[in-house]
Amino acid sequence: GRRRNAGPKKGEDLVHPIQLTLENLYNGKTVKLALTRNVICTTCSGSGSKNPNANTTCESCDGHGVKIVTRQIAPGMIQQMQAQCPQCNGSGTTIKAKDKCAPCSGKKVISEKKVLEVPVDKGMRHNQKITFPGEADEAPGITPGDVVFVVQQKEHNRFIRKGDDLLMQQKIQLVEALCGTQFVVEHLDGRKLVIKTEPGALIRPGDVKTVEDEGMPMHKNPFVKGKLFIKFDVEFPANSSITPENAAMLAKALPEATPMEEQTDAEEVVMHDADIQNMGKNSAGRGAGAYDEDDDDDMRGGQRVQCAQQ
């Protein structure tokens, strides 16, 4: 069948990142941004000349708007390619200096500053796009492209976001881990939450708890919220900070430890503080020295075993 006319070519989209805090994405916000773009000159209606009939065919490209250019890509190898005509900027027509439109200087477009109000909805996510159709640069014979704002979420000093859920770290003392804890968290909308453990609940190092409906609002459905996850770090007392009397009282209050079986032929050793990153470093040094000593013994012992290719 006959090929359908695709209509005017669409211009390039203008993509612009927009930096937003987690508070902005939780509560929603309208951001005003100034945009400078090209619009068709209203004086000449995009012809570029005082009189549209004054436009003449570009002699450089013979009215095609493009020229065939050649370039050498290797010795003895030449490549031919089409390029926009620099004389008429691809329009195929030129305008004499005396006939050029004064406001646009014959460029057919003028610069315009416009303020866009960008609506940031509650619950929007990192890299989500906000599109303003047809607000990019205008040019004769071309459909303007879109202005696209891309959400860039800034790092937060307390919360980490994953989907509609939030994660925070909370450090508590050992007594709180064993006997219960409560603490205040200021949320992204300014509310203060008093968070407490259930009666009788213990918290172990690395434990994670959740608070329902205190995560991020769901985009387009902000009354539904995700969860707030809390990961706990339990801080133990310093060495020697518990007196023998208090240690005895703790031993009575806590479940009894499993007694060690009596040993008749065991050696008693003492543990010291260590860094797991140092594991294997000292042994590697001693191992190398041991091999060196073995090599010396072989040299002193006289003849080595040698292999020869047959």
What this model shows, in words?
The strands form 8 sheets. The protein has a 4-stranded mixed β-sheet with strand order 12-13-19-16. A 3-stranded mixed β-sheet has the order 2-11-9. A two-stranded parallel sheet has the order 1-10. The chain is elongated. Strand 12 and strand 13 form a beta hairpin. It contains 4 helices and 19 strands. By secondary structure, the chain is mainly β.
Question: What attributes characterize this protein structure?
Answer:
310 residues, 4 helices, 14% helix, 4-stranded mixed β-sheet, 19 strands, 3-stranded mixed β-sheet, elongated, 35% strand
Mean pLDDT: 87
Number of strands: 19
How many H/I helices?
4
Task: Tell me about the largest β-sheet.
Answer: 4 strands, mixed
Pattern of helices and strands: EEHEEEEEEEEEEEHEEEEEEHH
Task: Describe, in short, the structure shown.
The chain is mainly β. It has helices at 22-27, 174-179, 244-253, 281-300; strands at residues 9-10, 14-20, 29-40, 56-57, 66-74, 77-84, 93-94, 109-120, 129-132, 142-143, 147-153, 160-162, 165-173, 182-186, 192-196, 208-211, 217-218, 221-225, 228-235. A hairpin with a 2-residue loop joins strand 12 and strand 13 (165-173).
List the helices and strands and how they pair.
Elements: E1 9-10, E2 14-20, H1 22-27, E3 29-40, E4 56-57, E5 66-74, E6 77-84, E7 93-94, E8 109-120, E9 129-132, E10 142-143, E11 147-153, E12 160-162, E13 165-173, H2 174-179, E14 182-186, E15 192-196, E16 208-211, E17 217-218, E18 221-225, E19 228-235, H3 244-253, H4 281-300
Parallel strand pairs: 1-10, 2-11, 13-19
Antiparallel strand pairs: 3-8, 4-7, 5-6, 9-11, 12-13, 14-15, 16-19, 17-18
